[in-house]
Amino acid sequence: MIRKPAFRALAALLLTALVLAGCRREPDADLSTVPGDPVAAVQAQAQALRDNDLVRWSKLSLPPELQARSEALWEQRVAAAEPADPEDAREYAELMARLTAPDAEAALMRDLEPKLAQFEAEVAGQWPLMQATASIFLSAAIEANTELAAAQKSHGRAVANALLDWAQPALITDRARARQAIAALSATAHELDLPTLEQARALGYTEALEKGGIALAGLKQASKAYGLDLDASLDGVRAELLSTQGDQATVRVTYPLLGRDVAFEARLQRVGEGWYDADAIAQAEAELAEAANATAVTPAAPAADAAAN
After folding, report:
1. Which residues span the domain enclosing 224?
2. In a domain, 306, yes or no
3. Is 309 contained in some domain?
4. CA separation for the pair 172, 193 (Å, rounded)
5. pLDDT averaged per 10 residues in sequence order, the chain, 309 residues
6. Which terminus of the chain, N or C, has less C-beta within 10 A?
7. Domain count, the chain
8. In a domain, 276, yes or no
9. This prediction's pTM
10. CA–CA separation, 44 vs 61, rounded Å?
11. How is the chain classified by DSSP, letter by letter?
């Protein structure tokens, strides 16, 4: 079984591929240069995702100084991390061993078959009701998320509705598609070469992004087996500058997803000569501030305990 943290990591990769999108790069474009206008900045970030290059995407998302501080915080946390929970480590190792076994595809399909049959027998007939219930639940969850702006909530609902319409029982239980997806996940596990949770948790900042790029490529392949072509969505995006005010800009991004057009507004911030993801900047700064506050509070605890005694 994949525990919730692993599921959230996969979901985050999927959402990243959907949310940040752009057009194809020009043949002679300098991919290492941070673009000097907002639309080009969105396109450059999206092209990095199209190429499964999360190292380049990360550098294009954050200004160099903030990027360096975020990398330093990552390395500090890796060095100070407590050992993994034994049960989590056991489940992770078991999953990776199964995915990389010589007979992985046949064995995993054999284990999946009764679950698919059970789904067909118990769920397929109730799918319309379950679909409606899931739609209500997801809409409520998105609306209740205080970290999302109104435009982000609208985008989230559009993506959720498209995915719910796509996830029909006949698609989910298609054995040929399942075999293709399992093959993609097995190949990805081999390429990741992280048989233990300890190895995964010990990855440095750049290495983690490199491995993340491998995982993103594998997730794209597994999704494509079910007709969800994330690269086609990335290739079909249109970006339009809506407004600029000083060092802030808003770009409207529209992309095709499962036969419909989905749009969202991306906020960008100019730092120096380049434009970066404003939400990524805010999130990185908040995380750094939280870490600094935690460091400032921790040393004071022993002194307080001594005074109390």
Report:
1. 4-20+29-290
2. no
3. no
4. 28
5. 37 39 39 77 92 95 96 96 96 97 96 94 86 92 87 88 91 96 97 97 97 97 96 90 95 93 93 93 94 76 50
6. C
7. 1
8. yes
9. 0.81
10. 10
11. ---HHHHHHHHHHHHHHHHS--PPPPTT--TTSPPSSHHHHHHHHHHHHHTT-HHHHHHHHS-HHHHHHHHHHHHHHHHHPPPPPHHHHHHHHHHHHHHHSTTHHHHHHHHHHHHHHHHHHHTGGGHHHHHHHHHHHHHHHHHH-TTS-HHHHHHHHHHHHHHHHH--HHHHT-HHHHHHHHHHHHHHHHHH---SHHHHHT--HHHHHHHHHHHHHHHHHHHHTTT--HHHHHHT-EEEEEEEETTEEEEEEEEEETTEEEEEEEEEEEETTEEEEHHHHHHHHHHHHHHHHHHHHTTHHHHHHHHH-
pLDDT of 299: 55
